[in-house]
């Protein structure tokens, strides 16, 4: 990995073991690099699964097959290939994924729909079948100690500068259940779609339909509320696995005792993982929270917030620690949502810079400039029209983003 | 002006005089710079006017007043202030514009609606009234020689690196009529709205309604088909003035003899000016033409083309001369328009790199890499679904864009 993002957490967190989940990593050498790039997670029989995937129409074979597996509702294994997205590779790419699934089915004697494969990296190059087969052979049936969460989190990365994990717990009728997740993502991150690659595991017993319901709700305010560069991956996938090993009576509805607590834990893990992706945004030097209030609806507020969060001019101004709030006005006005210039108010941090269509009386830029020198920036816009509100997270746009992306394949 | 864009034309073109149009420039010192920044254009009585303005909801007072003038249909003067956009400045900004209009009305004894004012530069700072009054006093009633087109084109600029002008002519029933235009724009350029600041003049006699009809049509395929950074100015304005001094019988419908020829000249000037804005895109090192065909409709093709043209990952790849066509696939897929991964074809220049959902057989990257080393890049996507097609123009995304915009106000 390259230099760790200045916005990274101090260290990888301690994640609990999730009963029914075992991990292995291997070197498939999908790229010519000195690291593991194949992750294999085996799940106990009976594990429920939920998932959300990219809305990008040109999605990968992996995503199409994940959707079939999600509909099936049960999972036995997850394989993640890093360094090659295998997207837009036609029948050759599909053959590679089918080979991986067949190899796992032969080992676990399970339904092919219960094997989930993700791939991430360059688009348009078929995943090399020989490397996949040899890499997978190293981890299937391996008897030694499992890979750590941190190893797995590191093995699924591509341009990420730090491995990302999070955990929470909940109590279901007196039993503690654990939730742990890992995620990768740094660029090609846009919120209109599912997300990058994220995997969350719990030992709680949950029916697949309820699990899916919880994941859909959690994703909206977490993975779907972040943006790095407004670009949406062809491979975005978040999967949530519930092994049922905690021994609780299986949850089937949100009214079941403990369901709300479990949801809160899932939401907390998803939010932390999503924000870590922004903190590792390509070239990021500032973490930015955009809060919009006073919109005609929450959805309208969200669109305005994304217009601000995706504006190259807003993002470069913040990179330059420049309180150029006129660009926030511009981004509100171009969003295509109801707004009234003369009721609009803008703030940085807790400092209002403009209200009712003009700069505030006696505007003092000093505290605003001080806020912008920090690593955590908050931008607020109140539209003054209604009760709609939304929060999204993004990072600034810097020379680092250009350097990383003008020369990605070499 | 800073270093001239590598994509700039060799020199400012020779533009014809337009009878009934006289120009003056002055130093109002809206910023502390060593250049003219106030442009005054006086138009002969009877001049017709048409215009298109930004769709940004947070538009400036200038834009609101231009709209009233466009509805009126007649013009006597145009004033352009550079260095201060006077947008989001509330009643203070409005007072400054009203003072300018009153000063011109006192001189010309005309209807206030016939005075058009534009301002461009930083948002949120009221235009200084004293500087405007003193600057305008230097040019109103000035008896010496008019400013050249190049002087005027240079005086309306802000971050532009070269002045932009274009001209064409047409024959209306045996009489030659002239069309000449100037434009400024470099950043905060997005095509969903009207445009930056552009002014086109003709000596043809044309009824205001027909003039507006011609401008609307020309704008769609020119100023509204370019993007630098997907950000839309609060001040975007294009005005088209027709002085009627050519002596032709006034045109009132598109069926009148010569109307098509005049339209073609207006379209040619608008297209050249729009492409010059892209050639001066902030930090641009490549001029990019994006052609989409095979879409279900022209409008759908346009949205897909804009998704490609606005993708930071596509633009940085081209800056890096990297044939990373997977990013074009990604941008097609995220556009939200009908597309079928397995019918999609992508090309750079005339070289097809992918067809029917996978790389072309025997793909040779050498000629593609050679095309990408040039200054003029063509990206094509055929969706294979229908007859819809569209072309848009953009530039690459480079370190220069970050440098310019992270430190714009200092």
UniProtKB/TrEMBL annotation, chains A, B:
User: Reaction(s) catalyzed by this protein?
Assistant: L-glutamate + acetyl-CoA = N-acetyl-L-glutamate + CoA + H(+); N(2)-acetyl-L-ornithine + L-glutamate = N-acetyl-L-glutamate + L-ornithine
Which GO terms of type biological process are on file? L-arginine biosynthetic process; ornithine biosynthetic process
Superkingdom of this protein's organism: Bacteria
Per the UniProt record, the site (Cleavage) maps to 194-195
Keyword annotations for this protein, in alphabetical order, are: Acyltransferase, Amino-acid biosynthesis, Arginine biosynthesis, Autocatalytic cleavage, Cytoplasm, Multifunctional enzyme, Transferase
Q: Which CDD domains match?
A: OAT (cd02152)
Q: Which EC number applies?
A: 2.3.1.35, 2.3.1.1
Location in or out of the cell: Cytoplasm
Keyword Acyltransferase, does the record have it? yes
Active site feature: 195
Q: Does the keyword Acyltransferase apply?
A: yes
Give the CC-aspect GO terms: cytoplasm
User: Which residues does UniProt call coiled coil?
Assistant: none
Molecular functions per Gene Ontology: L-glutamate N-acetyltransferase activity; L-glutamate N-acetyltransferase activity, acting on acetyl-L-ornithine as donor
- At which positions is substrate bound? 158, 184, 195, 282, 405, 410
InterPro entries, per database record: Arg_biosynth_ArgJ, ArgJ-like_dom_sf, ArgJ_beta_C
Please state the pathway this protein functions in, per its UniProt record.
Amino-acid biosynthesis; L-arginine biosynthesis; L-ornithine and N-acetyl-L-glutamate from L-glutamate and N(2)-acetyl-L-ornithine (cyclic): step 1/1; Amino-acid biosynthesis; L-arginine biosynthesis; N(2)-acetyl-L-ornithine from L-glutamate: step 1/4
Q: What does this protein do?
A: Catalyzes two activities which are involved in the cyclic version of arginine biosynthesis: the synthesis of N-acetylglutamate from glutamate and acetyl-CoA as the acetyl donor, and of ornithine by transacetylation between N(2)-acetylornithine and glutamate.
Oligomer status and interactors: Heterotetramer of two alpha and two beta chains.
Instruction: Tell me which family the UniProt entry assigns to this protein.
Output: Belongs to the ArgJ family.
NCBIfam families, A to Z: ArgJ, PRK05388.1
Task: Identify this protein by name.
Answer: Arginine biosynthesis bifunctional protein ArgJ
User: Which source organism?
Assistant: Sphingopyxis lindanitolerans
Q: Which gene is the coding source of this polypeptide chain?
A: argJ
């Amino acid at each position: 990995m390259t230099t760790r993002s200045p916005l990274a957490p101090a260290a990888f967190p301690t994640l609990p073991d999730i009963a029914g989940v075992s991990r292995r990593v291997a070197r498939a050498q999908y790229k010519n690099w000195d690291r593991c790039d194949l992750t294999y997670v085996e799940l106990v029989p009976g594990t429920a699964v939920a998932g959300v995937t990219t809305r990008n129409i040109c999605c990968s074979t992996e995503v199409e097959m994940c959707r079939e597996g999600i509909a099936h509702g049960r999972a036995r294994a997850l394989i993640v290939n890093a360094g090659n997205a295998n997207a837009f590779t036609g029948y050759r790419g599909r053959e590679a994924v089918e080979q991986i699934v067949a190899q796992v089915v032969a080992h676990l004697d399970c339904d092919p729909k219960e094997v989930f494969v993700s791939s991430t990296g360059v688009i348009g190059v078929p995943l090399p079948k020989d490397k996949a087969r040899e890499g997978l052979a190293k981890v299937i049936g391996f008897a030694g100690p499992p890979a750590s969460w941190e190893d797995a989190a590191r093995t699924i990365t591509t341009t990420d500068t730090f491995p990302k994990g999070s955990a929470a717990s909940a109590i279901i009728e007196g039993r503690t259940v654990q939730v742990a997740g890992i995620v990768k993502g740094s660029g090609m991150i846009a919120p209109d779609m599912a997300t990058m690659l994220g995997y969350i595991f719990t030992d709680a017993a949950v029916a697949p339909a309820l699990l899916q319901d919880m994941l859909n709700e959690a994703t909206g305010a977490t993975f779907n509320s972040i943006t790095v560069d407004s670009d949406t991956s062809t491979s975005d996938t978040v999967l949530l696995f519930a092994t049922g090993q905690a021994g609780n009576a299986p949850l089937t509805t949100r009214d079941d005792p403990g369901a709300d607590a479990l949801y809160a834990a899932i939401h907390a893990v998803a939010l932390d993982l999503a924000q870590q992706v922004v903190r590792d945004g390509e070239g990021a030097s500032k973490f930015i929270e955009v809060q919009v209030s006073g919109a005609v609806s929450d959805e309208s507020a969200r669109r305005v917030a994304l217009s601000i969060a995706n504006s190259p001019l807003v993002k470069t101004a913040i990179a330059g620690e420049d309180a150029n709030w006129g660009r926030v006005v511009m981004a509100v006005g171009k969003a295509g949502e109801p707004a009234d210039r003369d009721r609009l108010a803008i703030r940085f941090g807790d400092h209002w810079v403009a209200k009712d269509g003009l700069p505030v009386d006696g505007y003092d830029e000093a505290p605003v400039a001080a806020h912008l020198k920090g690593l955590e920036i908050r931008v607020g816009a109140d539209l003054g029209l209604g009760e709609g509100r939304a929060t999204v997270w993004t990072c600034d746009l810097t020379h680092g983003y250009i350097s990383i992306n003008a020369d990605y394949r070499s």
